[in-house]
Write a structure and sequence with these properties.
Blueprint: H1 7-18, H2 20-27, H3 32-44, H4 50-69, H5 75-86, H6 88-98, H7 106-109, H8 115-122, H9 127-136, H10 139-148, H11 151-162, H12 169-183, H13 197-205, H14 209-222, H15 224-233, H16 245-254, H17 257-264, H18 269-277, H19 281-293, H20 299-318
Helix pairs in contact: 1-2, 1-3, 1-4, 5-6, 8-10, 9-10, 9-11, 10-13, 11-13, 11-14, 13-15, 14-15, 17-19, 17-20
Length: 332
């Protein structure tokens, strides 16, 4: 049934019903990650009955009607919504593509490549150039690209991302032109505000725990203060208190009770209350009994339990099942 389908699956069914030309026209306005998700969905959707198709179409018509009533179709309205949602700079390229018919070239074209290919293209560049390129990518793609780089240079690249306070428009233009030659395209960049501590934190957030820890440890050896500033901005266990209730309930279905009990041993009262409030009354009572009965726990064990839950949360966020929000901004 359509009610149990994810957004990308519904979009896939919708596009499959539109026909090749109409579907291609719609996909022109999607970003790289959206195209990948929807494209994968279109190849895996099978055995969809007529009832499900009708439900998907009904959902789309209702959503379109609601949006139209709000004035969608006005370029000023679209610009305002995108800027509020994404920020002035990140919204710029999307506004160009949707409102002004802009195209994606140069550095933007990298976003359509797989991480291994990107790593091969920039592997021999100066670490500062690599840092600029990774800052320009979405954080999850940048993390996967960084994982493809030699281990000895990863911490240096992340440090450069963290200390990058922007780049002169002309310098960024020249870098973009270098990429253009490889893609036989051209693109005039308007924004030069990339990199920084938050960018470095987002990249590390999207890496697996082992690589994340190794890179942070290497940075600490060189610049302990910088490592601490990056870590302060990374998604941590306490940030789970910012989750919406639906996401928290979804997460609880995937977490082992023993692991949760151990992890909550070192959690704040606010976070504990968040977990308890999203359990049934009986389950909450049992969890509280387990917590009360648990003796002193080693800090390493508590942190291990918290990391295990964070890993599950990150995986579910990547799958689009839940939404994570840190103390600074949305994780996904």
């Amino acid at each position: 049934m359509a009610g149990s389908m994810k957004g990308a699956e519904k979009a896939s069914v919708l596009l499959l019903t539109l026909g090749e030309d109409a579907a291609a026209e719609v996909m022109r306005y999607l970003g790289p990650r959206e195209v990948q998700k929807v494209g994968l969905g279109m190849t895996t959707v099978s055995n969809v009955n007529r009832e499900t198709v009708d439900e998907v179409l009904d959902d789309f018509i209702k959503a379109a009607a609601e949006q139209t009533a709000l004035g969608v179709g006005s370029s000023d309205y679209i610009r305002s919504v995108l800027v509020k949602a994404l920020g002035e700079e990140k919204a710029g390229s999307i506004i160009d593509r949707i409102v002004m018919g802009g195209s994606t070239r140069g550095l933007d074209q990298l976003k359509w490549l797989d991480p291994r290919t990107i790593a091969e293209m920039i592997r021999l560049e100066h670490p500062q150039i690599i840092a600029i390129v990774l800052s320009y990518l979405e954080s999850d793609q940048a993390a996967l690209t960084l994982a493809e780089m030699p281990e000895r240079v990863r911490h240096d690249i992340v440090m450069r991302v963290a200390t990058l306070e922007g780049i002169q428009p002309r310098a960024l233009q020249e870098l973009d032109e270098i990429m253009e030659k490889q893609f036989a395209g051209q693109q005039r960049l308007k924004s030069s505000s990339i990199g920084g501590l938050q960018s470095a934190a987002h990249i590390l957030n999207n890496m697996d725990s082992l690589n994340e820890g190794q890179i942070l440890d290497n940075i600490k050896e060189i610049d302990d203060e910088l490592a601490d500033r990056i870590q302060e901005l990374m998604f941590v266990f306490e940030d789970l208190s910012q989750m919406d209730d639906r996401s928290m309930q979804q997460l609880l279905r995937e977490v082992d009770t023993g692991t949760l009990t151990l992890a909550l041993k070192g959690a704040s009262e606010e976070l504990q209350a968040k977990f308890f409030n999203n359990l049934s009354r009986r389950a909450a009572e049992m969890l509280q009994e387990d917590l009360d009965a648990m003796g002193p726990a080693r800090i390493s064990d508590v942190e291990g339990g918290q990391k295990e839950i964070l890993a599950i949360a990150k995986r579910m966020a990547d799958e689009g099942t839940i939404t994570l929000v840190s103390n600074t901004e949305q994780y996904v």
